[in-house]
Amino acid sequence: MSSLLKPFSVREGPCERHAGNSGCLTTSLSPPTQCLGSRNAAAGLSPLPVAGYQAYGARRTLAAASIGGRKLTHPGKAILAGGIAGGIEICITFPTEYVKTQLQLDGRANPPRYRGIGDCVKLTVQDHGLRGLYRGLSSLLYGSIPKSAVRFGTFEVLSNPMRDATGRLDNTRSLLCGLGAGIAEAVVVVCPMETLKVKLIHDQCSLRPRYRGFFHGVSEIIKEQGVRGTYQGLTATVLKQGSNQAIRFYVMNSLRNWYKGDDPRREMHPVVTAIFGATAGAASVFGNTPLDVVKTRMQGLEAHRYKSTLDCAFQILKHEGPQAFYKGTVPRLGRVCLDVAIVFVIYEEVVKLLNNVWKTQ
Q1: Residue 361 CA to chain centroid, in angstroms?
Q2: What's the rounded Cα separation, in Å, for the pair 326 and 120?
Q3: What is the pLDDT of residues 81-105, one digit of tens each?
Q4: Which one, of 173, 177, 171, lies nearest residue 154 by Cα?
């Protein structure tokens, strides 16, 4: 009997010859008890249960994902890290968002107020001081934290089951996961947040501003238009955010896979992460700025002029020409590249920190 219990490799002896037998599990991982299906059957003994081997193999596969490659990020960590990254990022980049929105709202149908980016900044500072460049920040700050939390949390929930044993995610699946993350953040956070931001910034352009601040503006909008008033331009927002995150996560994941090559354990320096993030941000700007322009018009104070998202796009094309779909591209390019670079760097670093203090499987 002692000879039956002698350890042996799965590449020799009975397991090699009887790999198709149900009682024998062929694997490169050795479970606590050796594979005795064939030998026990020959000795007239009951075969060992296969379920135990399968459960053991599943545990070893998950362990391999943590040890052999990029460790799977727990959704809770992704939500917390994403929220922190989003809050820090918006405080740094909001002035560029303000200028971009002002230029997009400065419709060509009326005499333009601004001659360009510099003129917009100059007039804003003259009329409202430096604080004027941060008008509407509160609505984005309150929204950016949950927006990034939902984005990264959803992405990790969708992508974790799709990763291979080394934690690698292929590019096509990253595109789909990014699309899902973008749609989720659009519906849950971005649409009401962006609507409030655009209305507050647009209100500042009027001769007699109506809103005294964020909470007063929210109460007045809901009082006059109901909750639906904070969901103007939902279709355009879903299209914009879905394509945004699909492009960004696709480009970022592609660059990450290229950089790591055959070594999934290779660490990425924050500078490399920032460069890759800025590249992903630039790709998303050139890919969907027309959708951003339509979304901004649909959420402005003059949104009642448009019957639908398609009607808005048609009116812009008819009265302002195709070049109008790329209004605000330059300030948006600067803001988004900086935005995505900062968010990805802070997110990755916060996740590393959380891995040291928050132990998860």
Answers
A1: 23
A2: 17
A3: 999 999 998 888 888 878 877 887 7
A4: 177
User: What is the dihedral sign for C-alpha 16, 22, 28, 34?
Assistant: negative
Both tokens of 35, joined, read 């594979």
CA–CA distance from 116 to each of 71, 119, 211, 330, 343 (Å)? 46, 5, 26, 10, 28
What six digits make up the tokens of 265?
Answer: 């354990």
Tokens read off for 310: 């398609």
Alpha carbon 271 to chain centroid distance? Answer: 19
Q: Are 335 and 90 in contact (CB under 8 A)?
A: no
Residue written as token pair 């996560």: 249
174 token code pair: 């990253």
Give the tokens for residue 45: 């003994």
Give the model confidence (pLDDT) of 344-356 as tens digits.
999 999 999 999 9
Three-state secondary structure along the chain? CCCCCCCCCCCCCHHHHCCCCCCCCCCCCCCCCCCCHHHHHHCCCCCCCHHHHHHHHHHHHHHHHHHHCCCCCCHHHHHHHHHHHHHHHHHHHHHHHHHHHHHHHCCCCCCCCCCCHHHHHHHHHHHHCHHHHHCCHHHHHHHHHHHHHHHHHHHHHHHHHHCCCCCCCCHHHHHHHHHHHHHHHHHHHHHHHHHHHHHHHHHHHCCCCCCCCHHHHHHHHHHHHCHHHHHCCHHHHHHHHHHHHHHHHHHHHHHHHHHHCCCCCCCCCHHHHHHHHHHHHHHHHHHHHHHHHHHHHHHCCCHHHCCCHHHHHHHHHHHHCHHHHHCCHHHHHHHHHHHHHHHHHHHHHHHHHHHHHCCCC
pTM, full prediction: 0.67
Q: CA-CA distance, 348 to 361, in Å (whole number)?
A: 18
